[in-house]
Amino acid sequence: MNVKILLISILLLTLLGVFGGKLGQKVIPESWGGGFFSSPIGHIAIKAEPVHAEPIKALSLGTNSSSKLLKAITNTYITNTMIATWLAIIVLIIFAWLVNKNKNSVPNRLQGFAEIVMEFFITLIGGIVGATQVKKFFPLIMTIFLFIVIANWMGILPGYGTIGWIETPEIIKSHLSHGDSSSGGHSDHDDGHDAEYDDQPLAKFVKSGPVYIQPLGSVKEEISLTCGLDPSHCESTKELTNPNVQAGRLSPYLRSANTDVNTTLAIALVAMVMIHWWGLRTLGPLTHVGKFINFKEGPTGFVVGLIEAISEVARLISFTFRLFGNIFAGEVLLIVVAFLIPLTGILVFLFLEVFVGVVQAFIFSILTLVFAATATTAHSADEH
Description:
- By secondary structure, the protein is mainly α.
- It is about 55% helix and about 5% strand.
- The protein has helices at about 1-20, 55-60, 70, 80-100, 110-130, 135-155, 170-180, 195-200, 225-230, 260-285, 285-290, 300-340, 345-375, and strands at about 165, 200-205, 210-215, 220-225, 245-250.
- The chain is globular and about 75 Å long.
- It starts with a helix and ends in a 9-residue tail after the last helix.
């Protein structure tokens, strides 16, 4: 009996998700109730979104600051991926504190889970670099793995990408104009209509103050930035004249940290710097640098060293974009599925993203270990 109820409940939720999403509007017209769960498709941007409208200069420093240091950070924004990164670091610190707080000979569940993960990595690292080298590599490898996993898993929590503030058409126009002027280009927007503006789809939102939570069934229609700036360019201006309705774009306060290429680049830089530091400490400066600048073996040795140097740059690039590409693609997939089939359609992909988050963290940390093992091993020619 309970199984039948469960199956019927799953079937009903599936039907609600299919016919309530944007995909359902293709079967049942909106006038008949199709797409009743449909929300605006999230704004997909590679660049991290700011969490405030004005740059830091205008918020706190003023425009007449004479400090060179303060001027260096003007026109910058705190982004949603910055906040997500700080939160992931805080969670990682709390996790480490809780594990060490109540260490017992008979471990509790949290301590037992932590010990299983640590033992796995200790055994793995020992098998690659030797048991005597575990203490050298374990702290960084374990930290990289845990940070990436926590950041990836936090990125699929409710609230990421759905709670934020509304960027008004004027703010979006200001950002576009700033981009034009900073790049040296020129764009004439005086007539209120521009093709670039039409490529910036907006939605209509009910005004709710500085914090907006995007509910199901909140928006049915997209409008252009041109329409948002000047309702006379809209096909229908009735709803935009409503004082409780505003055109804009949801800019979330939180977004998965690893969907920002700056975050993945920072992790990759830390990994590569430590790899070469270990190489310098283990082999000595002359031997380690000699892998890349080699005149002893003639032209062949020089070319081989040059290829080694290029491969190090390639490793940095692959580190950065492998993690960024996989996590960003996963976020785009979740946004699109939630738009087409809300409620049930996204559940399968959420479990998939949990798995992908662990796999990407494992790949990143193990490649760091393998590259470190290579960096601390002298070439055969250098050993003689």
